[in-house]
Amino acid sequence: MKYTHLTEKERYTISILRKQGLRTAGIARLLNRHKSTIYREIERNKRYNKYFDRYSYQPGYAQQRARNRLARSRRNKRYGETDFRLVAALLQLDWSPEQIVGFLRRIGQKTMSHELIYQYVWNNKAEGGMLWKHLRQSTKQRRKRYRSNDSRGRLAAKKHISERPAEAELRLEPGHWEIDTVIGRGTKHCIVTLVDRMTGYTLIGQLDDRTTNSLNNRVKKIIKQSDLPFKTITADNGTEFHQYAQLEKQTKCLFFFANPYHSWERGTNENTNGLIRQYLPKKASMSHVTQRLCNQIAGKLNSRPRKRLGFFTPQEYIHAHL
Fold first, then answer.
1. How far apart are CA 194 and CA 225, in angstroms?
2. Rounded distance, CA 98 to CA 306, Å?
3. CA distance 284 to 153
């Protein structure tokens, strides 16, 4: 088995699992790593905490040390400024370092690790460059408080998510979508997002408000203007979807509804909404958003390589399966 360096995500996972009481062997099994790798990582990067009078593993400190070692390594000195020209161009398209590495490897191009690309970006920032502005910003995930009952109203005769065809549930073919609305500051101006479950292909529509009339008109227009199949759509229980029956009749696309407050049942859409927040931050107003801007954002997302698609883009993937 080929050894790969621990990633930043793995380091934070180690920290969380240790706080939950897991031992080194258990953490190694969950991360599919050798236990000696985890043991060395913890021992090498633990720091003394004077407030608690004990040593603790700090993932941020560990990641910075790893980046410093990487910057000093002889192996990376073989990369010059010319090697980063294509990387810099792809960064400016808002591709993540991991997407860049996966894509370049896929097409047989010489490439470096995604960690080295991050180091390049931070060095560029220190020199006054702006590449760091194209990195995806981590925003707080949208959470909803759990209640025993759904307070947003009930719809008679709506189809439950468990009734979806197997093709939709197992992502066996394009044409099975998830839908949601994303709001900015205030509640009036917003967008509607449609994401294909199999390919991650995204369509975005501008809404003047969250009324059922505005949503139905925009979704109907998106479906009719698209040359893509629409067989099912899975929604949450928001009131903006209460006139779904009209859309079913007009588009011949069946609607299914997730359980209240179970956002993970529409995980594809939730993840995509997080990506959209890079362009439309949560605390910013959407009053300036036009359909043209929505199309531009969707175009960027659909032309980015995705890890789960073998670093093909959603655009390439959906057309390959039609």
1. 14
2. 9
3. 29
Q: Do 128 and 169 fall into the same domain?
A: no
pTM across the whole model: 0.62
Identify the helix (H) or strand (E) that includes residue 255. Answer: strand 254-257
Between 255 and 150, whose confidence is greater?
255
Q: pLDDT tens across 45-66, in order?
A: 888 776 666 778 888 888 888 8
Q: What angle do the packed helices 35-45 and 24-31 form, to 10 degrees? A: 120
Instruction: Tell me, yes or no, whether 110 lies in a domain.
Output: yes
**Total of domains in the chain:** 3
Domain span at 116: 81-134
280: which 2 tokens? 């439309």
Q: Running DSSP on this structure, what letter comes out for residue 312?
A: B
pLDDT, tens digit, for every residue of 184-232? Answer: 887 678 999 999 999 999 999 999 988 999 999 999 999 999 989 999 9
The answer on 315 and 178 residing in a single domain is yes
CB contact at 8 A, 98 and 49: no
Q: Mark whether 209 and 116 lie in a shared domain.
A: no
